[in-house]
Each structure stands twice: as C-alpha cells, then as structure tokens.
Amino acid sequence: MEKYDVIIVGSGVAGLFCALSLPREKNILVISKDALDGCDSFLAQGGICMLRDEDDYDAYFEDTMRAGHYENRVESVEIMIRSSQDIINDLEGYGVEFEKKNGEFVFTKEGAHSNNRILFHEDVTGREITSKLLARAQERENITLMAHTTMVDWVCKDNVCYGIVVADMDGKTTAIQGDVTVLACGGLGGVYPHSTNYRHISGDALALAMYHNVRLENCDYVQIHPTTLYSNQSGRSFLISESVRGEGAVLRNKAGERFTDELQPRDVVSKAIFAQMEKDGTEHVWLDFSPIPREEILNHFPNIYARCKQAGYDPLETWVPVVPAQHYFMGGIYVDKDSKTTMEQLYAVGETSCNGVHGRNRLASNSLLESLVFAKRAAHDIANTKCFKTTDDFDNLVNVDGYEDLPSIMENYHAMVVGEIKKEETLRAKKEAI
Ligand SMILES: Cc1cc2nc3c(=O)[nH]c(=O)nc-3n(C[C@H](O)[C@H](O)[C@H](O)COP(=O)(O)OP(=O)(O)OC[C@H]3O[C@@H](n4cnc5c(N)ncnc54)[C@H](O)[C@@H]3O)c2cc1C
User: Fold this and answer.
1) Ligand 1 within 6 A of CB of 321
2) Which of 12, 33, 184, 262 has a C-alpha 20 to 30 A away from that of 352?
3) Locate the FAD-dependent oxidoreductase 2 FAD-binding domain: which residues (predicted)?
C-alpha cells in the first residue's frame, strides 16, 4: 500500500501551487484524471487580477462584490485582494512572465472591472502560469506526479479522511493512504453539453462530497460565459475572452445593431444575448472586433485570432458568431478561509471549492487568483498542523474491488451532480418566490 504525507487530486493551478507551497520535506502525490496538462487552468486566456496599489482597493473590492450580487463572503474577498501582490511575486519567482513595458506591468481590463488591473501573457495567461508551475513541480524530488489516474472514492471513517481510491487507465484500483487529501479537481463543465471546460472535468469531488456527507455550497451557481465561438459541431466550446470586449469589441444582432453594454457582469450580458437570439430567431449573435486596433488584435489576441480564422471568420475582416456556454462554477465544496472542508484532513482548493469569493457570479480574471491564494493558505495550514489522525485499519476501511465498472461509477457521479444543481435551482426559485 502506498503512503504519502499529502495527496493532491488535480494538476491545475490550484493543485500544483498547493504542492509547491508545501514544505520540501513533505512527500506529496499529485494525480490527474487526464494528462497533467489536461486541465482548464491551461485554457485561461484573459489574465489574472492584481491589486495595483492602495488607491484601487475599494474599487476592486466593490467590483468583485457587485459582480457577485453582494452574496460574496467579505472575509474571503479581502484575503484574496490583499494576497494578490504576493502571489504575483511568487509566480514571477517560478518563472512566469507577464506583459511588461519598460519593466513595468501592463494591465488590461475585462467586463465589470472599473479599472485596468488584469495581468496577462498574450491570450494564453493560463498556459504560461500552469506550464511554469508544472515544470517547477516536475523538478521537485518530493513531488510525484501521476497522470491518467482517477480518484473514484475517499477512504474515510467517522468524518476523517485517510486517503483515496484511484483507478488507472486499465481500470485497476488501488487505495493510497495520505495524512491529508487536497481536492483540486476543477469545475463541472463536463456534465453540460456546451461548455468551455474539458469534458473530463465533471464535478467528481462534488459527488463524493454528497456521498460522504461533506458540506456543499451554492451548487446552482454556475456561470455561463457570454462569448464562445459558435459552432454546430460537438466538443469543447472555444472561448473568446472577455478582454476582447474589454479592449473595445462590440456585440451586434442580426440587423447589425449593438444591443447591450458589453462590459456588464457576465450573467447580465449572457441574459441579453439569449434574449436577443430569441427575438431574432438565431443560434448566435455577432462579435465585431473592428473597434480594436489591428496591431492589438494580432499582438494581444494571437490565438483567438488564429482560431476564429481557422473556423472561417477573420476578425480583421468580418464579425465572428458567438453564443453563451457553461464556463465556471462559483459553488462547490464548502471550505473555510484555510480551505478546510467539513471533513477532517480533507481540504478543497480552486474551482472545486467554495470559499465564497465569487458570490453568485464571478468577476472576470478573479478565479486564477482565488485558486492560487487559497491553495497557498491550504498548504500553510497543512504545514502548521502538528499531528494528524492515523488508522491501523486502513486496508479494511475500503474494498478496492468494488470499483470495477468505472464508466458506470462516473455516470452515476455525473447524475448526482446534475441532480444536485437542479435541486438547488428549484429550492432557490421557491425561496425567492416567497
Ligand atoms: C476557456 C477558459 C478560459 C478561462 N480564462 C480565465 C481567465 O482568463 N482568468 C481566470 O482567472 N480564470 C479563467 N478561467 C477559469 C480558470 O481557468 C479556472 O477556474 C482555474 O484554472 C481552475 O483551476 P483548478 O486548478 O481549480 O482546476 P483545473 O485547472 O480545471 O484542474 C482540474 C484538475 O483536476 C483533475 N481531476 C478532475 N477530476 C478528477 C478525478 N476524479 N481524479 C483525478 N483527477 C481529477 C483534472 O484532470 C485536472 O488535472 C478560464 C477557464 C476556461 C475553461
């Protein structure tokens, strides 16, 4: 039986940053259901927020709260904003490069931000950050990285987590013991037919939380991104970052008219697009890049430009068809400010967790930051924990032969997640009607 000090489930920004922030004497395992770079963190385009200076604090706080419909946990928002400069320092220390001019950061803007406070690396900020974190993790002798390894269950008793059960690519299951388990499994886009997320990121940890009575929060708070490239083919939807609208692109209806303020919060813009599509009887609206200078399109958005062109729409020449799609999960496994779940020795970080930063709706470019801030807090809390509960009976706590039919287990988890979202939606609608 394998044994680690810390098991981290997920190799996105949250999982990797947690691993790198733990002391080097900890023996750490990081697993990923897919390839190590098969995570949404690699797909992030727009950027990552940073508090520029004290003068921007109140505005940044207010923008985050307003986007979240004031349902955010105030303490979490304060922690995130106050930690942002340290986190960017850490990232630069790991080799991450952000756009600079004369040695100074260049800041861009996205919807619902009242100031330019977003750092970026072309339109592949997530790839820049996550590939550097992965490279650093691969260099560390105390971190073992295991791809194509799926967590199928937790090994727990009396509300204490002692490890996980994993399945490899051949479906062989093993129990792995850990003093602490950190869930960094991303969102739940895989349960939606149209999503910007990888298909395998499908809320598995949420299903396990339901199964083992770990507290969840706001499972119906699912963000729909207003602008993904319209396509009638199945598969992951390609995102057209909000920073394209932040830099001036406008939305147009069938008649070529502008129909909404493009820089309102995402939920508001998505609603306006759906209403326009219904009115026009169309399957998409149009995004007009022409207000953005040609050089800006080519230099700031080279990948978005290339992808649109590949689909037959040259943003320098023509409008691009766009449609909203599932994008982000604001709810998740309830955690406190140190990313602890309601089960002992079990933490959750990144999109899987709900620390309340985003409230009802996430402000653009806050999620990479939130993932990093609270992953580091989890690491510090683990490092400062003097002793962990252990069990002499680990092998008898779970029967690893009970997971042979992996596809139906996963299908069952998906159904549980979808059911929970629907249940919460119905309950909230009833409450709001009263
Ligand atoms: C297209 C796109 C663009 C975005 N742009 C931005 C942006 O500009 N700025 C911003 O702040 N945010 C952006 N986001 C959101 C942001 O990228 C994510 O919220 C963030 O990266 C989540 O990181 P994470 O580490 O929590 O999860 P992920 O990066 O999604 O990683 C999840 C990991 O968990 C693993 N996993 C899942 N289930 C299991 C299981 N059962 N067993 C084992 N492993 C499992 C996966 O394989 C993966 O390794 C964007 C998201 C998308 C999809």
Assistant:
1) no
2) 262
3) 5-368
Q: What is the 3-state secondary structure (H, E, C) of the chain?
A: CEEEEEEEECCCHHHHHHHHHCCCCCCEEEECCCCCCCCHHHHCCCCEECCCCHHHHHHHHHHHHHHCCCCCCHHHHHHHHHHHHHHHHHHHHCCCCCCEECCEECCECCCCCCCCCEECCCCCHHHHHHHHHHHHHHHCCCEEEECCCEEEEEEEECCEEEEEEEECCCCCEEEEEEEEEEECCCCCHHHCCCECCCCCCCCHHHHHHHHCCCCEECCCCEEEEEEEECCCCCCCCCECCHHHHHCCCEEECCCCCECCCCCCCHHHHHHHHHHHHHHHCCCCEEEECCCCCHHHHHHHCHHHHHHHHHCCCCCCCCCEEEEEEEEEECCEEECCCCCECCCECEEECHHHEECCCCCCCCCCCCHHHHHHHHHHHHHHHHHCCCCCCCCCCHHHHCCHHHHCCHHHHHHHHHHHHHHHHHHHHHHHHHHHHC
- Ligand 1: residue whose CA is nearest its atom 14: 44
* Domain residue limits at 13: 2-221+330-430
Question: For residue 243, what is the domain's CATH number?
Answer: 3.90.700.10
Ligand 1 pocket residue status of 45, Cβ below 6 Å: yes
- Predicted TM-score (pTM) of this structure: 0.94
Distance 134 CA to ligand 1 centre (A): 14
The active-site residue out of 117, 266, 307, 362 is 266
The count of domains in the chain is 2
Q: Which atom of ligand 1 approaches the CA of 186 most closely?
A: 27
The pLDDT profile of the chain, 434 residues, written as one tens digit per residue, is 689 999 999 999 999 999 999 999 999 999 999 999 999 999 998 899 999 999 999 999 999 999 999 999 999 999 999 999 999 999 999 999 999 999 999 999 888 899 999 999 999 999 999 999 999 999 999 999 999 999 999 999 999 999 999 999 999 999 999 999 999 999 999 999 889 999 999 999 999 999 999 999 999 999 999 999 999 887 899 999 888 999 999 999 999 999 999 998 888 999 999 999 999 999 999 999 999 999 999 999 999 999 999 999 999 999 999 999 999 999 999 999 999 999 999 999 999 999 999 999 999 999 999 999 999 999 999 999 999 999 999 999 999 999 989 999 999 999 999 999 999 999 999 998 88
**Ligand 1 proximity of 332 Cβ (cutoff 6 Å):** no
- Could you tell me if 256 and 380 lie in one domain? no
Q: What's the gap in Å between 93 CA and the centre of ligand 1?
A: 22
Pocket test for ligand 1, best of 169, 322, 367 (most atoms within 8 A of CB): 367
Tell whether ligand 1 has an atom less than 6 A from the beta carbon of residue 356.
no
Domain end among 280, 295, 326: 326
Q: Are residues 136 and 247 in the same domain?
A: no
